[in-house]
Amino acid sequence: PKALEMIQKWYKWRQDERIDQLPIPFFDNDIAVPCPIRDYHCLNDANLMPGNGIKDYVLKINNHLGGGCWHKTDKDGRPVYIMRVGRFDTRKITKYCTTDELLQTHYILQEFLTRVLLPECSSRAGREIDQQVNVFDCSGLSFSMNNLPAISMLQDIQTLLSKSQLYYPERMHKIYIVNAPSVFVTIWHVIKGWINPRVIGKIEILNSKDFASVLLKQIPESNLPEFLGGCCRCSHMPGGCVPCPPLRNYPVLPRVAFADMKHRAELSFETTSHQFYFKTPPHTQAYFDLKEEEKSRPTSVDNTNRGWVSFGGRQSSPSPSSLAKSYIPPVVLCCFSMIGGRGVVVEARFKSIGTLPREELLYPETLFDAFRGPTLIEIYLPEDEPEGELTITWRIPRFDEGEAPFPTEGEAKIPTPLHYDVGMEEEFLSRYDLPPVNRNIDKKSL
Question: Which domain of life is it from (predicted)?
Answer without folding.
Answer: Eukaryota
